[in-house]
Design a protein that fits this description.
- The protein is built from five helices and two strands, in the order ααβααβα.
- It has helices at 2-36, 45-51, 101-110, 117-127, 146-153; strands spanning 91-95, 136-140.
- The chain is 45% helix and 6% strand.
- The protein is mainly alpha-helical.
Amino acid sequence: MFEKIKDFFYDISDIFVSLLIIALIFISVSWKISDTLSIDIDAPIASAIDQEQVNDPPVIVVTPEKPEDPVDETPEDPEVVVEPVTPVDLKTFTVSEGSTGYSIGQKLQSEGYVDDVNSFVKRLIEMGYDSKLRAGDFKISTSDDLDTIIRVLAGQKR
């Protein structure tokens, strides 16, 4: 009789310990995911995304002009004008492991690469790169546009 009671308590304690371990794993994974995907809710970006509709710029189609009357002369080759390439002052920007998009935007703003953290986060989400940012050292310039900076931080080439 006492053996059955003892076995019952051992079984219950095993089940309780198993449930406790599962609960701890669930809490730690949820905490890490919510920390990774967190965005400052007090920032105006949350209301800006909800209220502002993103308008695509108008598409302008340029068609070459066709001469109305054919000309007997053979057309000359157009001159190709090559503008000199100015060297870009690339600096090393470091993204640490576990950084969120918002914290990366704050660091980019403090170092002068972007003007506004919220516009960086908004464009990051629009481009679909919010989960593709990587940790490491990246070569970017303060003259780079926002899209180029985001692509470089996601591990793509310029």
